[in-house]
Design goal:
It is built from three helices and six strands, in the order αβββαβββα. By secondary structure, it is α+β, with helices and mostly antiparallel strands.
Length: 97
């Protein structure tokens, strides 16, 4: 399933905007991100932690989808750290070589 998420991404800079429909935290330590155009991507929690410099000891508390334009979400941790994730981070990550 992990490979399917990576293959679904488009080359950097060519994705078209689509609002977030739903985001779920899975206990497998990943986020299931669903867009309005039907695309679903499984994003590892470690990637989001690394990009936002979140402490490894921080534990997931809750998440919020941005209300106004649904272009991202915030992950809140028990130590008051917050990771902000935009739709572009999920959909437009450059492909690994």
């Amino acid at each position: 399933m992990r490979a399917a998420g990576k293959n679904a991404r488009v080359p950097f800079g060519t994705a078209r905007f689509s609002k977030l429909r739903n985001v779920r935290y899975l206990w497998e330590d990943a986020f299931d991100v669903e867009f309005e155009d039907g695309l679903c991507i499984l994003e590892p929690h470690a990637t989001i932690r690394k990009a936002n410099r979140i402490s490894p000891k921080a534990k997931f508390d809750h998440l919020e989808i941005e209300d106004w334009c649904q272009a991202g979400f915030s992950v809140h941790y028990d130590n008051r750290q917050v990771a902000e994730v935009s739709w572009a981070f999920i959909r437009e990550l450059p492909a690994r070589k």
